[in-house]
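Before a colleague's protein record goes any further, I have to sign it off. My question to you is simply how this chain folds and whether the tokens agree. I do not need a full report, just your reasoning and any doubts. This is what I was given:
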Amino acid sequence: MINLGRKEQIIILIIMAVVLFSAGYQFANKADQPVELVTLQSTDDLESSEEIKDVFVHVAGSVEKPDVYQLPANSRVKDAIKLAVPTADADLSMLNLAAPLKDGQKLQIPSIVEPTTPGQSMAQVTAVPVPMQGTPPTINRPAVPSVTQGGGLININFASLAELDSLPGIGPALAERIIEHREANGPFQTIDDLKNVSGIGDKKFEDLQELITAQ
């Protein structure tokens, strides 16, 4: 055993005290540091915090206030038509009023009575000369839109399921999709719009374009 003098013992105690004080000071500083708590946000919270964007739709045709309207994302076709105020001759039966709106969509509201020429209504009756006595008078009545137009063309805006099925390459399932697209998005503006229906590509459209009309 090593015999240390009093002076050596005091030095050793001082060194030990300094070491213990330094260790205690460092421990105390670490204990005082704030603990950061990381919380994970649930998927439901993320979905609820996302901003729901509005949709912009163009309403035209037989309405009193044709314009572009801004509506909530979960709005339906009937909501946009209500804002545009349909006219008395608007034919809403051609539209699917319960269909959800899509951003950038155009709603063309058809009319029950369409004008034949600018400024002349189909409801107008053309005057005819007075016939000879004994001959019943003849009145030129306005033409009613028909499915089959001159030249045997089928109007894709009015054709029934059976009439669409009669077209080459159009079966019952594809004919049903054409009608559903027509009800959800309104009448086809041109026959080229038929290519927006799922299942009708450029090749099939080439076989149909000489047999159909949208007017």
Residues 115-130, 134-147 have pLDDT under 50 and may be disordered. The CA atoms of residues 107 and 185 lie 6 Å apart. The first helix runs from residue 6 to 32. The beta strands are 55-61, 67-71, 106-109, 154-155, 212-213.
